[in-house]
Amino acid sequence: MTQNDHKKRCGFVAVIGAPNAGKSTLINHWVGSKITIVSPKAQTTRSLVRGIVLHEESQIIFIDTPGIFRPKERLEKAMVAAAWQGEAEADLVMLVVDASKRKTDRDTLDILEKLAAHHQDRPCILVLNKIDKVAKEHLLLLAKNLNEKVSFLSTFMVSALKGKGLETVLDYIGKQIPESVWHFSEDQISDMPMRLLAAEITREKLFHKLYQELPYGLMVETEQWEEFDNGSVKISQLIYVARDSHKGIVLGKGGSQVKEIGEMARRELEEILQTRVHLKLFVKVQENWRDDPEKYLLWGLDYSA
Ligand SMILES: Nc1nc2c(ncn2[C@@H]2O[C@H](COP(=O)(O)OP(=O)(O)OP(=O)(O)O)[C@@H](O)[C@H]2O)c(=O)[nH]1
Ligand SMILES: [Mg+2]
Q1: From 3.30.1490.100, 3.40.50.300, 3.30.1360.120, 3.40.50.1820, which CATH number describes the 4-176 domain?
Q2: CATH code, 194-298
Q3: Is the pTM above the cut of 0.85?
Q4: In the chain, at which end, N or C, are there fewer CB atoms within 10 A of the end residue's CB?
Q5: What pLDDT score was predicted for residue 296?
C-alpha cells in the first residue's frame, strides 16, 4: 500500500426500492453516463448493474437492483432475489422511495419491514426521490414516518430528474464507505459487457415505444457482434416474445415499429461506441423463454430463486 492509498476509500452501495422509484435514473446521474436503462414502466431493471463513480478520494460502486415487489412468476422471483443479493453484497444500503406517492406503497412497506428485521447487518440511508412533484410538508412527514420504521443513518431529499440534492448524497457516501484501495481502474464506469448493455438499450427503446401495449416478459439478446477494420460495428440482436400476437405488436405495420426502435437504439449505441453501428433486429417467438435456464445465466439471475 502506498502513502496515498491510505486516504482512499472504496465501497459498494446497493440502491434498492420498489419498482419505478427512480433508482436507475439516480445512478446514471451519479455516474454521469447512461449505464443502466430507465423507463416509465415498473420492472425495467432486471439484473444487477454496477455503476462506478469517483468522488474525491472515494471510489463508489453503486449496485443498481431490480425493483422489489411481491413476485409471482419465475422471472419476477429471480429479479427480486437478485435485488436482495445486491443488498447483501453492499457496504451501505440506499433505500430509494418515490416521495410523490400520496401513500407509501405496499412494496416499500415490505422492504422497510425486511430492513428493520436485519438492519444491524448493514448501515442504511434513505433517499426520498421525485421531490419535484411534492410539497415540502409532505416530505417532512414522510421522512419522519419512514424513520420510525427503520433507523436510517441519514435521510436525503432529491430529484433525480432535476439533478437536485444529488451532490450532498455523494459527499455523504464518499465519507461513509470503508478506507480501501480502489477495486476498479479509474476510467471504468460499469462492469457490464458491451453486448449486454447493447441489448439493454434496445429493450429500453422497446419499453418506451410500446409503452401502452408492451408485451410482458419481452427479452433482448445480442447474438452477433462483428467489428470491421474501418472501426464500424455490426450488431445482431434477437427480440424474444412469448406469442405470435406479440410479434405483430413489436413489428408494427409493415415492420415500421421495429424499424423505428432499431433507429433509436442504433443512434444511442453510436454515441456510446463513438463509431458507426449497423444494428439488425429480429423478432423471435419463443413461448417458454422464461423457463429457459440459459437465459437466466446470461443475465446473472438465479433460475431457481
Ligand atoms: N418527476 C420525477 N420523475 C422521476 C424522477 N426520478 C425518476 N423519475 C422517473 O421515474 C421513472 C422510473 O425511473 P427508473 O430510474 O427507471 O426507476 P427504477 O427505480 O430504476 O425502476 P425499476 O428498474 O423498474 O425498479 C422514469 O420515468 C423516470 O424518468 C424524479 O426525480 N422526478
Ligand atoms: Mg431500474
Answers
A1: 3.40.50.300
A2: 3.30.300.20
A3: yes
A4: N
A5: 93
